[in-house]
Task: inverse folding
């Protein structure tokens, strides 16, 4: 089969490779669409060390080709949960499969979705309903991580929520918060186009970062500050701004990933406001059917988050686009034509 193979950091080539082997507990899927993620950029550049050669890609949708499972028939459209876990360790047995120390991410620790075919355990293949279109389906993996995160903070109807950062995950978080009945839901984002998208998707208001917006958030929340801050950038100053917008006793969900080992934060404010911190990693199986359902019923819209659609063969260009600033870019989806 054809696959985009990372042979060394920065070296991506379209190669002919052996089709993945199938055994009875696994499903062979022809990948039709995949999403390009910041993690792929870090793997590509070498910031996340991996073995080479590697087929990257962990956001993928496709069609079942071969399967022994009755619930998964050839031709069924599916998405794949790329987070494999051992099932027998302390964490897996406690239901915290997303924390499994032997966990494997397809596309990082094993071959992933930037190829014609991929195999995955039956337990990690989820059928799509007719209402979900294949092109946006890879984004459901992203939605599962947001849903898993919001399970920890349990938004109550009428609570005020500030979302710092309106990239793909911020836009998903705002839709989930609205679905929980939060009010107002306020987005903070420097990019005007992303603010516009957020307001179309239901944000009560979207504001640029800065002092004036901190003031606006206080005004919109009876002078107190927001009940819940969802930080979706992983950037130090943005976390600090979120803390400034939090009310006394608020919750702060640190969703954005940072690998920085030093960040300047107003620690005194964490104490003084008695903030409760939450963090969240990946997702669990339970989040997949729930996310497919939310998209199928239109509760969460993913189509407005797709800014570019390109053929799989242009993966290198797509990864380059992630590194460059563009006014109107969010998710890049790759289409996997059979004849590429
Ligand atoms: Zn990702
Ligand atoms: Zn485990």
Result:
């Amino acid at each position: 089969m054809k696959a985009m193979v990372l042979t060394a950091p920065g070296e991506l080539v379209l190669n002919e490779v052996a089709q993945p082997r199938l055994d009875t507990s696994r499903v062979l899927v022809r990948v039709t669409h995949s999403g390009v993620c910041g993690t792929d950029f870090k793997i590509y550049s070498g910031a996340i060390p991996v073995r080479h050669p590697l087929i990257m890609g962990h956001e993928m949708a496709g069609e079942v080709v071969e399967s022994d499972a009755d619930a998964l028939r050839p031709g069924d459209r599916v998405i794949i949960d790329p987070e494999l876990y051992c099932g027998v360790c302390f964490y897996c047995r406690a239901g915290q499969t997303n924390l499994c120390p032997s966990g494997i991410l397809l596309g990082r620790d094993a071959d992933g979705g930037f190829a014609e075919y991929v195999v995955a355990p039956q337990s990690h293949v989820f059928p799509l309903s007719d209402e979900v279109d294949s092109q946006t389906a890879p984004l459901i993996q992203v939605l599962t991580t947001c849903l898993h995160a919001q399970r920890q903070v349990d938004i109550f109807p009428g609570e005020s929520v500030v979302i710092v950062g309106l990239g793909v995950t911020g836009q998903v978080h705002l839709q989930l918060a609205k679905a929980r009945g939060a009010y107002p839901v306020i987005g903070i984002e420097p990019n005007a186009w992303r603010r516009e998208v957020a307001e179309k998707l239901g944000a009560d208001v979207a504001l640029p970062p800065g002092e004036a917006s901190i003031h606006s958030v206080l005004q919109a929340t009876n002078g107190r500050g927001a009940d819940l801050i969802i930080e979706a950038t992983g950037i130090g100053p943005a976390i600090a701004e979120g803390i400034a917008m939090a009310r006394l006793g608020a919750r702060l969900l640190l969703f954005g990933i940072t690998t920085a080992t030093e960040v300047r934060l107003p620690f005194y404010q964490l104490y003084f406001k008695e903030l409760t911190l939450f963090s969240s990693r990946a997702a669990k199986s339970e989040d997949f059917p729930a996310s497919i359902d939310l998209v199928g019923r239109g509760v969460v819209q993913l189509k407005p988050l797709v800014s570019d659609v390109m053929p799989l063969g242009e993966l290198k260009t797509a990864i380059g686009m992630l590194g460059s600033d563009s006014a109107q870019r969010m998710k890049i989806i790759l289409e996997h034509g059979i004849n590429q």
Notes: The longest strand covers residues 26-36. The two ends are 10 Å apart (CA to CA). The chain has two domains: 2-136+302-335, 146-279. Residues 146 and 173 are 6 Å apart (CA to CA).
